[in-house]
Amino acid sequence: MGQPKKKIIIDTDPGIDDAMAIFVALRSPELEVIGLTTIFGNVYTTLATRNALHLLEVAGRTDIPVAEGSHLTITKGTKLRIADFVHGTDGLGNQNFAPPKGKAIEQSAATFLVQQASLYPGEVTVVALGPLTNIALALELDPDFAKKVGQIVLLGGAFAVNGNVNPAAEANIFGDPDAADLVFTSGADILAVGINITHQVVLTDTDREKLSKSKGKLAQYLCKILEVYFSYHHVAYNTAGVYLHDPTTLLAAVNPSLLTYAEGVVRVQTSGIMRGLTIFYNKKKRFGEVTEWSDKPNVKVAVTVDAPAVVELVMERLMNS
């Protein structure tokens, strides 16, 4: 008998790199994907749900439940920032796929998260690839959720580098900064992977060629949708490749030793020009006065990544699909 599989729920806003992460998860023998929960971000929540159902259909895994998440931020904000200019208006490279046959389950994402964490206390890893609204709602729904959930591995923040929405903020945190601050200070076992890390992990034009020549069914599918994502990166970042934000975060849940981490307190700025800024307090200095930083629980923040190993794993799992 090998290791028991790690139960994971992917909270996602698909999104092209979300699609890659979901496919990599389904091809990872270490993981048992017990559900997808959906959130706004790359697209609105309704479309995120449709895309999640569609991706599970493509992968032949319609047995996995999809729970629809919040349509609003945690403070009931309706003015959402949607990144469809990065991923195509349908979120999946403007391929206009036929609607999925499946439907989301009755439960909301937050209810589903709470239920699964209660069913398998300490065993569920939530991989959060979008704004953290659903996770924050789960914490509000069940005050013990932070203790019951095994780990939350999240893509978010720009630690000591510029953001990607504006110089201060990274997209997922900016999507719902109040939710993010709530999650970071909840006391859950949290591992944050910021764009300071994911911008080091690039799938190049050459890698894409290799994917398109492979026999992998999921690789073939992804090559169809990658065009929009590549052209956005060519223009926005002047780079001959795309950043693997979501797959890197997913693989941090599979194999934490691909990254190294620092521990400390993370707070999120929730107002003003710095809204969405993530600040990491390394606890090196003990400050005298009691502040909004004192007595907050530690989280782990990724500081280095073995980028070639991550790209290789992504390639290998997609090509053998």
Automatic annotation (TrEMBL):
GO molecular function: inosine nucleosidase activity; protein heterodimerization activity; uridine nucleosidase activity
Subcellular location: Cytoplasm
Reactions catalysed, as given in the entry: uridine + H2O = D-ribose + uracil
GO biological process: purine nucleoside catabolic process; ribonucleoside catabolic process
Class of the enzyme per the UniProt entry, highest EC level: hydrolase
Superkingdom of this protein's organism: Eukaryota
Chief location bin: cytoplasm
Domain Inosine/uridine-preferring nucleoside hydrolase: 8-311
PANTHER family: INOSINE-URIDINE PREFERRING NUCLEOSIDE HYDROLASE, URIDINE NUCLEOSIDASE
Protein name stated in the entry: uridine nucleosidase
Source species of the chain: Stephania cephalantha
